[in-house]
Amino acid sequence: MHEHDVVVVGAGGAGLRAAIAAQEEGADVAIVSKLHPVRSHTGAAEGGINAALRDGDSWEDHAYDTMKGSDYLGDAPAVEALCKESPEEVIQLEHWGMPFSREEDGRVSQRPFGGLSFPRTTYAGAETGHQMLHTMYEQVVKRGITVYDEWHVMDLAVTDEEDPADRTCHGVVAYDIQRGEVDGFRASGGVILATGGMGQVFDHTTNAVANTGDGVAMAYRAGVPMEDMEFIQFHPTTLPSTGVLISEGVRGEGGILYNEKGERFMFEHGYANNDGELASRDVVSRAELTEVNEGRGIEDEYVHLDMRHLGEERILDRLENILHLAEDFEGADGLTEPMPVKPGQHYAMGGIETNEHGETAIDGLYAAGECACVSVHGGNRLGGNALPELIVFGKRAGHHAAGKEMGEPEIPTGKSGDWEPAEYEFEVAVGTVGDRGPAAADGGAVASDAEGLLEAEIERARERVEDLLARKGRNHAEIRSKVQKTMTANVNVFREEEGLKQSLSDLREAREAYTDVAVSDPSRTFNTDLIHTMETRNVLDIAEALTMGALARREFRGAHWRKERQERDDENWLKHTLVSWNDGEPELWYKPAILEGEAKTYEPKVRSY
Amino acid sequence: MSTQIPKQTEKADETAAETESEAPSKGDERRAEKRRRADEQRRQREAEEAERAAADENTVELRVFRYDPDVEGKQEPRFDTFHVPFTKGMTVLDALMYSRDTYDSSLTFRHSCRQAVCGSDAMFVNGGQKLACKTQIDELEEPIRVEPLPHAEVTKDLVVDLEHFYDQMEAVEPYFQTNEYPDGELEEQRQTRENREKIKMSTRCIWCSACMSSCNIAAGDNEYLGPAAINKAYRFAMDEREGEDVKQKRLEIIEQEHGVWRCQTQFSCTEVCPKDIPLTEHIQELKREAVKNNLKFW
């Protein structure tokens, strides 16, 4: 068994920043990740990092834009923390050597992004995430922080008190992919989940194959509520054949969207008369799909994004990476022709419920980055707001886990503040299926002390691996594919009651099928069949919680659109959706959004661009 | 065969010895049975696939290197054949994923982002180092031969051990160092656009290790830093924000016995780099810098 003060799960932007912060506070910290750090999907982020750095801009304006972008479902204390601390974090990255794009005077460049009232997106070409990830990994190497790479974390070691608020997390159990062994990582200070996105729940996504929401699912099964899971961002410009992302930076620099008739539909069809292509992402995605659905799409599938008029010099200077992506993955030359684009799953606004220190409802368990819901993005994330979230809240979680005194949080977790039960009755059963074999194991092991708990969890994880390797059954790939297909068909940009119910019932079938899952590769060496099979369980749990939230929320807010009620309903829905696993019988409940900030209250206004 | 046969390491022997010393458990028996079944299924699948491929011309044939030190029947390296239905825009990675998810879930390779930024899926395709995710099938001759990267120890199938590569990357003090920061609290260091442009290509490295695998010198000298690590050193040595004294230290590191002077400018690294980094030029420039620097002290 390994022992550290702080154990960080995941080595993307949030995980690396958390580890550095914990070490700064004097903690012995280790990172456990199923990928080597530089393989993390933060590296695929293109556009930039929002930070109010310049005269004429202010953190208050950034907070206002973020709140409006969130469709008033962000929590003000989190939003304000993000906007206040992002500038110093960006400067910190610059001091660590990050190669930002520069102005003539040598200062870091900023560009306009969708939904922003000031050009405050700092960037490094169209490869900002790559530069940020590598810059932070360099710091991890410099500091000699221990990294256990290619270790797949299977589960959390959490005590099993009846009320999740009384439980404590003492560490994690993980599977060493290279050597095929299970071991435990005890964390006396805290475990920080930074496992990133969950895009593999859908089949057309900008996310990596590794983005299976492992941390989210682990926390969920351990008793931490999932918050606002129904809010999924569909990015308006992804390549149709692969889902590869074409940065919002293209529109930020002046790129234009056209339909089949050559109309600049964002204006000509009145979707966003002021901001056009630079309206918020949810607005542009719906506009594109409406064009396609009404017969004005190209090949009935996509629209065109044209940047030719920007000129070769500007494109090469600021968007060079886009030329390579369009060429390599779609065979389009962005210098001489428009690029085909359509909406694709991009980002999960929801996730593990945390407060502004990164703490979850379970003592000793933290989350930061895309896997967490703090919530700064509410119903819709603004472009350029994901990367600052990683560094601001990664750092906060790292500091808190290492014991830094940070004051009383304003955001309640679990059922500690105001909350109300949901009245919604699901027609399809959700949660655990029938007899729980080790393959579908959940809930915690029982032990009286931390060490005993870890030992018991290790044993349980070993049994699960042995069982999956030994049993006969079906391959996980068909189950995962079924989940992805129904989610993409029914829980996409446009959602309606019947489709959502269909999805829930398809997911039930997939869950039943999963009880019969088996790994056919018997190997102890780099058994990706085994890893993918365990991931698919996570994908299933997340897809279900997401669909439950989408069914219950009968309104149109941010990225969540419902046919049955196509307007925002502030009277009934100015609240967060929460789903608790509840030991296998998921429970839906709500808590109010916090709109009262430090100096002002963010009054909900009509959101137009 | 261009793929080197992996060494039968001590580790493998140890595993075998351990297995012998214990009586076979129920689990072992089940697994042995599973292996037999898997072998049988493989033969059957290949026959079926070949039949289907003969009937339908629109499939591509892949010959994929297979090896697993842990599984009976795979300890001797071999090539398996997969027939994959071709779709427009299909990459080598797409074909491998299809083969794994449809025919053989034990087919093993690293991959994650699918867009040439995570650097996981460098492999040896038709005799060249390529990123599988950005290599279009229709640009390759069939049958497509897919092997693990040469000059690295094979862990299993297309997965190689990257520890040595990571060690070299980390040997060049691969992190920004400076002794001077601006005074203002929220003030960045200034960098000219020209200087940023100068280091830009070098910062694009995704650590895929294709260059290291292609390099004859690295193959013969295990201590040679290799193109990727030297490029990383270049990225910092040329960054004007670091200052002269730090640059001195960097030049000392890259000038060591197994540093820049080992490079024989064969350009193989530059040719295979999926991010088009002019690696050989960077190494040459560092050689010139080192010479200039040494002259200064004479």
UniProtKB/TrEMBL annotation, chain A:
<dbReference type="InterPro" id="IPR015939">
    <property type="entry name" value="Fum_Rdtase/Succ_DH_flav-like_C"/>
</dbReference>
<dbReference type="InterPro" id="IPR030664">
    <property type="entry name" value="SdhA/FrdA/AprA"/>
</dbReference>
<dbReference type="InterPro" id="IPR003953">
    <property type="entry name" value="FAD-dep_OxRdtase_2_FAD-bd"/>
</dbReference>
<keyword id="KW-0285">Flavoprotein</keyword>
<comment type="similarity">
    <text>Belongs to the FAD-dependent oxidoreductase 2 family. FRD/SDH subfamily.</text>
</comment>
<feature type="active site" description="Proton acceptor">
    <location>
        <position position="281"/>
    </location>
</feature>
<dbReference type="GO" id="GO:0016020">
    <property type="term" value="C:membrane"/>
</dbReference>
<dbReference type="Pfam" id="PF00890">
    <property type="entry name" value="FAD_binding_2"/>
</dbReference>
<keyword id="KW-0472">Membrane</keyword>
<dbReference type="InterPro" id="IPR014006">
    <property type="entry name" value="Succ_Dhase_FrdA_Gneg"/>
</dbReference>
<keyword id="KW-0249">Electron transport</keyword>
<keyword id="KW-0274">FAD</keyword>
<keyword id="KW-0813">Transport</keyword>
<dbReference type="InterPro" id="IPR036188">
    <property type="entry name" value="FAD/NAD-bd_sf"/>
</dbReference>
<dbReference type="GO" id="GO:0050660">
    <property type="term" value="F:flavin adenine dinucleotide binding"/>
</dbReference>
<protein>
    <recommendedName>
        <fullName>succinate dehydrogenase</fullName>
        <ecNumber>1.3.5.1</ecNumber>
    </recommendedName>
</protein>
<feature type="domain" description="Fumarate reductase/succinate dehydrogenase flavoprotein-like C-terminal">
    <location>
        <begin position="480"/>
        <end position="609"/>
    </location>
</feature>
<dbReference type="InterPro" id="IPR027477">
    <property type="entry name" value="Succ_DH/fumarate_Rdtase_cat_sf"/>
</dbReference>
<feature type="domain" description="FAD-dependent oxidoreductase 2 FAD-binding">
    <location>
        <begin position="5"/>
        <end position="387"/>
    </location>
</feature>
<dbReference type="InterPro" id="IPR037099">
    <property type="entry name" value="Fum_R/Succ_DH_flav-like_C_sf"/>
</dbReference>
<dbReference type="InterPro" id="IPR003952">
    <property type="entry name" value="FRD_SDH_FAD_BS"/>
</dbReference>
<dbReference type="GO" id="GO:0022900">
    <property type="term" value="P:electron transport chain"/>
</dbReference>
Automatic annotation (TrEMBL), chain B:
<dbReference type="InterPro" id="IPR009051">
    <property type="entry name" value="Helical_ferredxn"/>
</dbReference>
<dbReference type="Pfam" id="PF13085">
    <property type="entry name" value="Fer2_3"/>
</dbReference>
<dbReference type="GO" id="GO:0009055">
    <property type="term" value="F:electron transfer activity"/>
</dbReference>
<comment type="similarity">
    <text>Belongs to the succinate dehydrogenase/fumarate reductase iron-sulfur protein family.</text>
</comment>
<dbReference type="Pfam" id="PF13183">
    <property type="entry name" value="Fer4_8"/>
</dbReference>
<dbReference type="GO" id="GO:0006099">
    <property type="term" value="P:tricarboxylic acid cycle"/>
</dbReference>
<keyword id="KW-0408">Iron</keyword>
<dbReference type="InterPro" id="IPR004489">
    <property type="entry name" value="Succ_DH/fum_Rdtase_Fe-S"/>
</dbReference>
<keyword id="KW-0560">Oxidoreductase</keyword>
<dbReference type="GO" id="GO:0016491">
    <property type="term" value="F:oxidoreductase activity"/>
</dbReference>
<feature type="region of interest" description="Disordered">
    <location>
        <begin position="1"/>
        <end position="55"/>
    </location>
</feature>
<dbReference type="GO" id="GO:0051539">
    <property type="term" value="F:4 iron, 4 sulfur cluster binding"/>
</dbReference>
<keyword id="KW-0001">2Fe-2S</keyword>
<keyword id="KW-0479">Metal-binding</keyword>
<feature type="domain" description="4Fe-4S ferredoxin-type">
    <location>
        <begin position="203"/>
        <end position="277"/>
    </location>
</feature>
<dbReference type="GO" id="GO:0051537">
    <property type="term" value="F:2 iron, 2 sulfur cluster binding"/>
</dbReference>
<feature type="domain" description="Succinate dehydogenase/fumarate reductase N-terminal">
    <location>
        <begin position="62"/>
        <end position="166"/>
    </location>
</feature>
<keyword id="KW-0004">4Fe-4S</keyword>
<dbReference type="InterPro" id="IPR025192">
    <property type="entry name" value="Succ_DH/fum_Rdtase_N"/>
</dbReference>
<protein>
    <submittedName>
        <fullName>Succinate dehydrogenase / fumarate reductase iron-sulfur subunit</fullName>
    </submittedName>
</protein>
<dbReference type="GO" id="GO:0022904">
    <property type="term" value="P:respiratory electron transport chain"/>
</dbReference>
<dbReference type="InterPro" id="IPR017896">
    <property type="entry name" value="4Fe4S_Fe-S-bd"/>
</dbReference>
